[in-house]
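Please go through the protein record below and see whether the fold suits the sequence. Record follows.
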Amino acid sequence: MSLCNSRNILLIGLLAALAACTPAEQDAGASEEMPAEVESLEGSRWQLAQLTVLGGHIFEPDDPSKYDLYFRSGDRLTGSSDCNDIQGSWFQEGETMRFEPFRVTRALCAPGSLHNNLMLYMMSVNGYRLEGDHLILTTPTEGVAIEYAPLK
């Protein structure tokens, strides 16, 4: 067989293999590589559902409405942590979340309050995810999660 014929057979084989790839298969591969579009939290309001701390201990507030967050427009954050008010800015990019600056009033709440533990972790939030209709805030500390439910 001549060199020309070998090249032609190889070229025809490559073209046939490329033609076998349908556009649907090509699109499926492309969508796997592209990151999912992230929904902005702007305008959303949340109340604390539970706080998971080191050691896997889970705390649930007696009154979730005392622990709320409001992601306002202009990257402003407001809310409450039991007997204290929260103010600051929020920044969201992909699955990264941070609060900076993060200011909290310093009133002494009644015994049993989750305020101190919650604020300890809120100041170091570095990510988030949505699970169902719940917002999970994460920190660099393994196993710590701050779970909020939508405020209706």
